[in-house]
Amino acid sequence: MTQPPDQTPQDPHGLPPEEEAVRRLLADARHDGPTPPEVVARLDATLASLAAERETARTTSTTTTAPVIDLGARRRRMAGIGLLAASAVVVAGVALGPGLPSMQGGSDAGSTAGDAATSQRELSEDSGGGADSGGAESEETGPQNLKSAPTAPEAAYPTLSSDDVDLDDELLSLRAGSQAPDASMATEPQADCDLSGTGRGRRVLAQVDGAVGAVVFRRADGASQQVDLYVCGDPTAVRTLTLPAP
Q: What distance in Å separates the CA atoms of residue 201 and residue 95, rounded to the nearest whole number?
């Protein structure tokens, strides 16, 4: 049977000719194959760059955060240094006692032991002051006395370890103590300690990894300050850190 000419033929999908043409174009444009390699590579590179930028921002934020100083730990360290110096005085008194003349041996040895005990008791009572006690113990090793005495007691130097996890806090405390108006920390090395290769900066003598050395505070650069740790006779720093500027 022939279809009447006045009726528009319909597509098997039941759509008008215009919509059927659009449907066929969309079907032909559909892509069923795998994603091209260059597109995959570009997506991977974009994701990697975004991850790197996020990691860099996180690292920068962590580095610029000023550490919190533990005042209790600082007091305990300074009190320990004071007690160590007092113990050295007691040992020196006991060692010198037998070598004194017999007529004065009893009285001098008793006086030395009494003075040492008194000094140790005073240090124990003043240990709560922390920095004040440490400053009083280090007066005898100031720059003026270092020039006149042949050797300075190494027990009076601050004790530092280059692999200590709290080294940042210890250096912040040392910097604050050296900048105090009544600071008397040793800054000039002995004749047998060569620190000529440490460069410019404010220097404070210290025990570094069990050897006599120095902490050199460089000039602050903006919001940060570089600090280098040296031992006598070695121009290479055993540790370099960056602290917030004072």
A: 40
Q: What is the domain extent for residue 195?
A: 155-246
The answer to whether 223 and 152 have CB atoms below 8 angstroms apart is: no
Domain match, 236 and 165 both: yes
Domain count, the chain: 2
Rounded to whole angstroms, the Cα distance separating 138 from 136 reads 5
Cα–Cα dist 95/113, whole Å: 11
Report which of 150, 87, 154, 149 is spatially closest to residue 120, judged by C-alpha positions: 87
pLDDT tens-digit map of 95-113: 665 555 544 444 555 555 5
Say whether both 162 and 124 belong to one domain. Answer: no
Express each pLDDT in 111-163 by its tens digit.
Answer: 555 565 565 666 555 555 544 444 444 444 444 444 434 344 555 788 899 89
Q: Is residue 22 classed exposed, middle or buried when 0-12, 13-18 and 19+ CB atoms within 10 A define those classes?
A: exposed
209 part of a folded domain: yes
